[in-house]
């Protein structure tokens, strides 16, 4: 299966089932990793096998096979990812909710929102990664250095972010703003706001 996620071009609201599944796995792999590295590890994982969709391939491997395939992909976090993938393969990624995603082991608020923001049109949520939080601090918001784990704190910062971008980017989708900020703060773009 040949699927490679380009971290600079992640928003797509018309993905096939296979593409949705690969993108969800990419989101899992990005936790604590560079997005380019996560994309390469995902390609190593999926390119080992033939099948219609990533979830079909992984379901057929079973938990031990998933673990071994992850080790071969060299992504790390094998315990967390094995459990997460074993649970996630049951999801319908076309219709699942934020709560459904967060019920998967190892999927937090940031990963769940990342998936929804870049796969469904008109979603308005904040992927509070280090880049977004730095943007918020640079614009006068008292935001932490890293993604908050408290649901209440996350939701409060999310509202502040959405208000802030509504002022600074009034006619730009939240998904596009997320990518603009990521490119600027990760050094992937020379553009200024």
What gyration radius follows from the Cα positions, in whole Å? 17 Å
What can be said about the biggest beta sheet? none
Category by helix and strand content: mainly alpha
Low-confidence stretches: none
Count of individual beta strands: 0
- Broad shape: elongated
Q: SSE order, as H and E?
A: HHHHHHHHH
Helix fraction? 55-70%
β-strand amount: under 5%
The number of helical runs is: 9
Query: Quick check: average pLDDT?
Result: 91
Beginning-to-end CA distance, first to last residue? 38 Å
Oligomeric state of the chains in view: single chain
Structure in words:
- Helix content is about 55%, strand content about 0%.
- It has helices spanning about 15-30, 35-45, 55-75, 80-90, 100, 110-115, 130-140, 150-170, 175-185.
- The chain has 9 helices and no strands.
- The protein starts with 16 loop residues before the first helix and ends in an 8-residue tail after the last helix.
- The protein has about 190 residues and is an all-alpha fold.
Brief description of this entry?
The relative contact order is 0.11.
Task: Outline the secondary-structure elements.
Blueprint: H1 17-30, H2 35-46, H3 54-73, H4 78-88, H5 98-102, H6 109-117, H7 130-138, H8 151-168, H9 174-185
Helix pairs in contact: 1-2, 1-6, 2-3, 3-4, 7-9
Name the descriptors.
193 residues; mainly alpha; 9 helices
């Amino acid at each position: 299966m040949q699927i490679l996620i380009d971290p600079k071009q992640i928003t797509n609201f018309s993905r096939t089932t296979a593409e949705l599944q690969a993108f969800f796995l990419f989101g899992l792999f990005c936790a604590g990793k560079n997005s380019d590295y996560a994309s390469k590890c995902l390609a190593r994982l999926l390119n080992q096998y033939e099948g219609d969709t990533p979830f079909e391939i992984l379901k057929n491997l079973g938990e031990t096979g998933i673990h071994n395939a992850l080790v071969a992909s060299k992504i790390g976090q094998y315990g967390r990812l094995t459990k997460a993938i074993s649970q996630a393969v049951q999801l319908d990624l076309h219709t699942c909710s934020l709560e459904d995603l967060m019920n998967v082991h190892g999927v937090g608020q940031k990963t769940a929102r990342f998936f929804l923001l870049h796969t469904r049109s008109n979603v308005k949520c904040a992927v509070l990664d280090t880049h977004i939080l730095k943007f918020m601090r640079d614009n006068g918001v008292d935001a932490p250095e890293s993604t908050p784990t408290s649901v209440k704190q996350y939701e409060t910062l999310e509202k502040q972010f959405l208000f802030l971008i509504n002022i600074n980017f009034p006619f730009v989708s939240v998904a596009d703003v997320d990518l603009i900020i990521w490119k600027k703060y990760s050094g992937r773009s020379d553009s200024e706001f």
